Description:
The protein contains six helices and no strands. The longest helix is centred in the last third of the chain and has 24 residues, at 86-109. 84% of the residues lie in helices and 0% in strands.
Amino acid sequence: MAWIITKYLLTAAMVVFISEVAKRSDRLGGFIAALPLMTLLTLIWLYVENQPEEKIANHAYYTFWYVIPTLPMFLLFPYLLPRIGFWLTVGASIVVTIACFGLFALLMKLFGVELL
Length: 116
């Protein structure tokens, strides 16, 4: 139980750190948020918890493919925010990301990459 609490605290600390940096600098906050810190932290947790190397490698592999269809959201969000407000922009971003993911998964299936 102590291990899970430690994981929660360290992971939450990363999110708080990034949001605090972003308050002070849009560029630096965006840069840090774009780094694969959570993925690296997850890979470390898997390794420390003695997960098989295949599982750790698969996590990194699928993370790569799952990042690609999320990228349009980062262009859509700043475009929509001043036009429709924060919460509608969040909702629209979620819908667009899900649609992009579905289309991307169908496309990648043609190349033998199973994402669903």
